[in-house]
Structures are given as C-alpha cells and as structure tokens.
Design brief:
It is elongated and about 65 Å long. About 50% of the residues lie in helices and about 10% in strands. It has one domain: Herpes Virus-1 (2-Layer Sandwich). The chain is mainly alpha-helical. The chain has a 3-stranded antiparallel β-sheet, with helices on both faces. This is RING-type domain-containing protein. One of its GO terms (molecular function) is zinc ion binding. Pfam families: zf-RING_2 (PF13639). InterPro entries: RING_finger_E3_ligase (IPR051834), Znf_RING (IPR001841), Znf_RING/FYVE/PHD (IPR013083).
Length: about 100
C-alpha cells in the first residue's frame, strides 16, 4: 500500500477520486472525510477537532492532486526499476 492513499478507505487518489484537505493538511477522499467528520468531528489521522460546516472544513486543491499523481508515477517507476534490478541480480546468482 502506498503512503499516498486515503487513510480512511485505503484507496489511492486519481482524477475521479480527488484528494480533499482538512485544516490540519491531512488528505482524504471527499466522501470518506465527509462521513468521518460528520460522525466524529475530528481528523482521522491527528484527531484535531474540526469546527464548522463540511464545506468550510474540506477543501480541494488541484495542486495536491497533481503532486500526488506525480509522486505515484515516480514511485511506480522506482518500484519497476527495483524489480528489474532484483531480477537481474537473481539471474546473475542463478547463472553462477
């Protein structure tokens, strides 16, 4: 699991499931955060008390989505490179 997932549902973010930010800067999917905040009135990660209506509490920032998608792409590329290196190392061991 990537650290770039919603901490409530554990799914990743994309163009359809955008990240929304709480005042404490933790990010979640809007439906996940809405359900949580309406029931608990705190952040799921840091437990900071949240006051106000949901539209004041949750904010969408397209830059957060862009950054997350870029990090996910870079992370995937790094994982692929590591897997290729591991496969090459295993092949070298098996050939010796």
């Amino acid at each position: 699991m990537s650290s770039y997932n919603c901490s409530i549902c554990l799914s990743g973010f994309d163009e359809e499931e955008k990240p929304y930010r709480l005042p404490c800067s933790h990010i979640f999917h809007k439906p996940c955060a809405t359900d949580w905040v309406l029931n608990k009135k705190t952040c799921p990660c840091c437990r900071k008390e949240l006051k106000g209506n949901i539209d004041e509490i949750l904010t969408y920032d397209h830059l957060v989505l862009s950054l997350l998608l870029e990090l996910q792409i870079n992370n995937k590329a790094n994982n692929n490179n590591n897997n290729n290196n591991n496969n090459n190392n295993n092949n070298n061991i098996n050939n010796n």
